[in-house]
Amino acid sequence: SEAPLATAARAGDIEEVRMLLEVRADANTVDDLGETPLFEAVASGFNDVAALLLLHRADPCKRSDAGGVASDIVADLSGRLLLDFFKGAELSHEDKHAILTEGLSDPEVRDSIAGRFRARGMQEAYQHTLRKLRA
Fold this sequence. Notes:
Blueprint: H1 4-11, H2 14-22, H3 37-43, H4 47-55, H5 77-86, H6 93-103, H7 107-134
Helix pairs in contact: 1-2, 1-3, 2-4, 3-4, 4-5, 4-7, 5-6
């Protein structure tokens, strides 16, 4: 039987996903194939659901039993960029803008992702300043 979170992710039901995560559903729960709800969301192009899962610690590097990762089956560029960002990649300003304007439609999710973009930028600026001070 499939976990309720995976079912909601596959259906793109962001409100159900949000509710399940709020009651501490495991964002990394696996199905019979070893796939997580993140696989379901990105394969179906539900980027808001994928972003919400990632914000709740879904592992974008988790491998299925077949050895695949979510980025192997991602439906579109915004989904791929989201996964890359949560894997630690630096995104261009244009890529971030595309995610926020084209890839995400839920205002709460969009605001949370924008906050992550800002936080990462501040952290990078801080690290750059430290490197300059040590030089």
